[in-house]
Design brief:
Blueprint (H helix, E strand, L loop, with lengths): L6 H4 L3 H32 L2 H10 L2 H15 L3 H24 L5 H29 L5 H30 L1 H19 L16 H17 L1 H22 L1 H8 L5 H24 L5 H24 L4 H33 L5 H13 L1 H12 L5 H18 L10
Length: 414
Amino acid sequence: MKQEIRYRDIAIQTQYVKLMAANVINRFGDSLDMIAFSLMVYSITGSAAWVALVFGFNALPTILLQPFAGAIVEGLNKKYTMVICDLGRGLVVSVTALLLILDLLSPWSLLLLTFLNSSFEALRIPAGIGIIPKILKKDYYAHGMSLNSTIGRVVEIVGLAAAGGIIGLFGIGTAIFIDALTFLASALIISFIRIPAEKRKAIEMNTKSYFHTLSEGFAYLKNAKIIFAICLLAGIINLSLLPVNSMQAPFITGTLGLPSIGLSVQGIASTAGIGIGTILFPFIQKRITNRILFIVGGIMIGICYLLWVLLAYHHELLWLTYTCLALSSFLFGFFASFIMSVINISFMQHIEEAYISRVGAIFNAIASSMTPLGSLLVAGLSLFLTVNQLFIYTGIFTIILFASMLSIKVLKQL
């Protein structure tokens, strides 16, 4: 009989626990950056269009570099690649914070630093995907990845709650410096991960073998229809989440007229929703198919956009505004967690280990391809539409899009 996996079984997977610890520290830094970065861009530019543009530019390295990075990483030591990339990201973020404090940061220099930071991330992501099968068995994926995500969300809530105080007392630059320190701490922890000896085919790093490795990844993706479908679905998800991610600061501080604490409230509530949804996912998955969870999650995201629009027209009472913002954001995160869990776990379960870094990089490139295109679209539309109008169109589009997926047969394999 197949052994039933429980969350407590993950605790004895020592090397995976180290990876989770590094991810959790990174998550705390990301939660500070989530608020500090949006406020920084909005305060420097004063333009919602610029916020969307920087957000989209952040995804360009993922699209342009990750397919190639995945082929390169396939022949590299995954652990040391992650360490170097975390150190690089820590350096770039430190420079960003320093320039901000010295009042030398311009929108164009911010674009350059954002591109450099994302370039390190483009190498780091396929290495992070490739290391998981080496330290965690496939049977543990659902619980292991859910636990990793849930703990990360709890820490993210702490970071979001602390962000308002840190920014209020010490400024945006200090919050970004703390984010830089989390990258350095992550690099240190990952350096202590022990990976069993690999029976890995040596890959010569020359042009011919590189392109052969890359082409094998594309060929595998072409033949694996469910993997290709998952890649496309991830891109659609990024497109549907883009308006709320890129318009968060303009909506909270502009449309609702709330201070920076409003960003913390929305972030904490949505993160709590994601955390609770993720921890419950393995149990709900036993009763409801991944396909239905995915579609229902998408439809509910569309509904949440429409709820925010209603809130924008009824926000006279401050306490009621915060309460409704928290509840709607919680629902958004809760159902978004179903989508993310289905995508991530299905990908790991269907992919062969020999192709995981290459195809994982291509997966992220396809998934992120919608971000810059969508950001340019959002930036352009924001010149003619209000945030409320943008949310209305996004909500209706998302509901129709996910409801239409009921007729797609390949999704039954999720």
